[in-house]
Amino acid sequence: MSTPPLAASGMAPGPFGGPQAQQAAREVNTASLCRIGQETVQDIVYRTMEIFQLLRNMQLPNGVTYHTGTYQDRLAKLQDHLRQLSILFRKLRLVYDKCNENCGGMDPIPVEKLKQKNQQLKQIMDQLRNLIWDINAMLAMRN
User: Fold this and answer.
1) Claim to verify: residue 33 and residue 79 sit in the same structural domain
2) What local confidence, expressed as pLDDT, does residue 109 receive?
3) Are residues 49 and 76 part of one domain?
4) Structural domain that includes position 126
5) How far apart are the C-alpha atoms of 140 and 7, rounded to whole Å?
């Protein structure tokens, strides 16, 4: 998987644009990789649904006269979808490997700790919401 060059992204290298800066700018962060992985999974699901749709519409050659051209077209479509599916799985594997490489030294955060942090953030947001409401009420009373 290649990343676009700096000029294509709209960012100029600037005066500090040495080889190390360019390499750092070309590296894709893990969040972007996860988004690419999610889109790839969605493409895989879509392609798989199309494959099943093609298979459902194909008639089995059970002695019934069947147009060879139609059969060949559907077979070519099916083979193309399977080839694309294989490419998507390889792409997903590359994204997965790169994510694991980027997160190699990181320890996973336990779910309980995430829930606790989430609860703390909710409390802070509620406090800010109440503070803003109190300020608005005081300003309304002054007017």
Assistant:
1) yes
2) 78
3) yes
4) 108-142
5) 52
- For the chain, state the CA radius of gyration: 27
Q: Indicate whether this model's pTM tops 0.70.
A: no
Residue 11 forms part of a structural domain: no
Query: Which of 84, 54, 86 shows the shortest CA–CA distance to 71?
Result: 54
User: Do 81 and 136 reside in the same domain of the chain?
Assistant: no
Largest CA distance in the chain: 89
Is the CB of residue 24 less than 8 Å from the CB of residue 6?
no
Same domain, 113 and 86: no
Residues 6+ apart with CB under 8 A from 77: 54
For residue 16, the one-letter residue type is F
Token pair for 61: 């050659």
- List CB contacts of 96: < 8 A, sequence separation 6 or more: 37
Three-state SS at 143: coil
Helix ranges (DSSP H) in the chain: 19-26, 30-57, 68-102, 111-142
Q: 90-140 pLDDT, tens per residue?
A: 999 999 999 888 887 777 778 888 899 999 999 999 999 999 998 888 888
